[in-house]
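If your schedule permits, I should be very grateful for your opinion on a structural question. I have a record of one protein: its chain in single-letter code and its fold written as discrete structure tokens. Kindly check, if you would, that the fold set down in the tokens agrees with what the sequence suggests. I remain grateful for any guidance, and I place the record below:

***
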Amino acid sequence: MPAGVLRLSDVIVPAVFVPMVRRLAVEKTALIQSGAMVPDPLLDHFLAGPGLTIDMPKLNGLDRSDGENVSSDDPTVFSVPNKPATGDEIAVRLSRNNSWSEMDLVRALLAADPLAALADDVAQYWAYRRQKAAIAQLSGIFAYNALATDANHIQNSMTVDLSGLNGGKFADGQTNFHGSAFIDALVTMGDSMGGLVLVAMHSIVYGNALKKNLIQFRLDSEANPTIPTYMGKDVTMDDSMPMPAAGVFETWLFGRGAMTYGTGSPAVPNEVIRVPAAGNGAGQSTMHDRVEWSHHVPGTAYVGTPAKGGPSNANTTNNLAAATSWRQVAPDRRQIPIARIVTREF
């Protein structure tokens, strides 16, 4: 190797690089940092073993509509205990990977601290892709909730849809994002609305809200007012938020722990391959990075049939964004602290 030429193999020691990337990726994922996604050791344990899905039998909360007994002094009258209802929640494994050549990563390799720069680049990528996977899964759950009412759910009980008002035409203050619609969406969450921690918006919705002075800013760790909020709740802006039609956008509300997550480690999470004959003998190095994830919305179950590497983000049979991939197993929608607002912004 010519003097002064830095190769991927010079920078990457998997035992150092992989933990650094995984930690940074968690720190850069807005859903995780807000508290909307929280770690679940059970999912970590699942990812450490075999299997494409994990069954998680859960005891549902006590039915508060059950009447209490009236005490008496009659020794012949016995109370009959209530039996807690159960639900079988199911999470699914997501096995993902990507690879980059030395040429793709040249900027990081030229940095003063190439290992830190490379780890930051890869972590940024995986944080974005993890959030995309979470958004696809939530899209599927909202799509399921929009299906006709059945024994498991009430149609659109998680949604406030303004897009069809005014004959499906834009009307400022009526079809676009505003405070009254936000509160209506909160109310669908019932008494779990008090745990709201995050509002996820498309940049178009965020920009329109900003123009109307609806967005405030709180201080970051360095006392700079850089963290956007709405009604005191953190706001994350993400252009991968669903757009059902031209000018129509979805805004999502998350309670704390609305989604749980696990992170696993593939057998070979990272490796660098050098092909000396590539480039007609000039040689090429390629880094392969692999991840194992599981995301779960408590109160729901994956009911598809996953492929070997798990479902993709697509809105097709068995995949994350498909309505038919999901079912509500919680007896009450209010036990699932997510909601959405569908608005027409222009």
